[in-house]
């Protein structure tokens, strides 16, 4: 979506939406009736405010945020790399289109992978913890975590399944992602070299119907922290 077109302007009473429809929020909270003809001067003023914001603010923003995620900062023992900041390649899917609290599912092919563009601030050695769920019928997948020239191989050997927490109490399904009771395990240690790289998880063998459902990687620096 083009963020330059996703602008709403509000006053204490009126709301101009992204399609230039004007609503009287005091008398029409459900926004059912366009009152543009009733308030032409106010609409003109709000459209001008939207255009000013589009020209002076949004014009300076990049069309796509290319900044990598910082990892291995020397002043911090831990770094989290959650699913919300990753991008999937292949058939993997987010649990929800809204990133916050989302996790990855439908990880069924060895060509699929979960990636982050990262900037390793300081080289070092890190223990890696994985947060995941996997039913007993699907355990056994072999996975490689790589970053630059370094890699760590591990296997999903412990089953842990979880229902969607809160789903049973909702009359209407949420827009946001449901969460699960994630299992945390240590998958080993990896050396990270300072610089920009692609952090990637990819399965090499999937004996069941899926690799796992993935929520988070947690890196703990195990060398000396300066």
Oligomer: single chain
The overall pLDDT average reads: 92
Radius of gyration, in Å, reads 23 Å
Instruction: Please report which band the strand proportion falls in: under 5%, 5-15%, 15-25%, 25-35%, 35-45% or over 45%.
Output: 35-45%
Fraction in helix: under 10%
Instruction: Give the terminus-to-terminus CA distance.
Output: 43 Å
Shape: elongated
> How many extended strands?
15
User: Structural class from helices and strands?
Assistant: mainly beta
Order of helices and strands: EEEHEEEEEEEEEEEE
Q: Strand count, sense and closure of the main sheet?
A: 6 strands, mixed
Task: State the low-pLDDT regions, or none.
Answer: none
Output the number of helix runs: 1
Structural account:
This protein starts with 8 loop residues before the first strand and ends in a 5-residue tail after the last strand. It contains 1 helix and 15 strands; from the N terminus they run βββαββββββββββββ. The protein has one helix at residues 40-56; strands spanning 9-10, 14-16, 22-24, 69-71, 78-82, 87-89, 93-94, 104-105, 113-120, 124-133, 142-147, 150-155, 183-192, 195-205, 213-221. Helices cover 8% and strands 37% of the residues. The radius of gyration is 23 Å and the shape is elongated. By secondary structure, the protein is mainly β. The model has no long low-confidence stretch (mean pLDDT 92).
């Amino acid at each position: 979506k083009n963020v330059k077109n996703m602008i709403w302007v509000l006053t204490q009473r009126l709301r101009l939406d992204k399609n230039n429809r004007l609503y009287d929020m005091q008398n029409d909270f459900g926004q059912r009736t366009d009152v543009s003809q009733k308030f032409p001067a106010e609409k003109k003023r709000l459209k001008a405010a939207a255009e000013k914001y589009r020209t002076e603010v949004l014009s300076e923003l990049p069309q796509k945020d290319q900044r990598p995620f910082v990892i291995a900062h020397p002043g911090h023992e831990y770094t989290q790399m959650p699913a919300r900041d990753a991008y999937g390649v292949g058939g993997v899917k987010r649990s929800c289109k809204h990133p916050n609290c989302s996790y990855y599912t439908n990880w069924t092919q060895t060509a699929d992978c979960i990636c982050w563009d990262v900037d390793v601030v300081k080289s070092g050695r890190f223990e890696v913890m994985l947060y995941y769920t996997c039913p007993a019928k699907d355990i056994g997948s072999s996975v490689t975590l790589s970053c630059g020239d370094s890699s760590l191989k591990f296997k999903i050997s412990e089953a842990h399944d979880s229902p969607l927490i809160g789903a049973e109490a909702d009359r209407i399904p949420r827009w946001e992602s449901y969460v699960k009771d994630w299992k945390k395990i240590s998958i080993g240690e990896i050396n990270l070299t300072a610089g920009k790289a692609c952090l990637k998880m990819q399965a090499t063998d999937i004996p069941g119907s899926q690799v796992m459902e993935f929520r988070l990687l947690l890196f703990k620096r195990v060398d000396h922290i300066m």
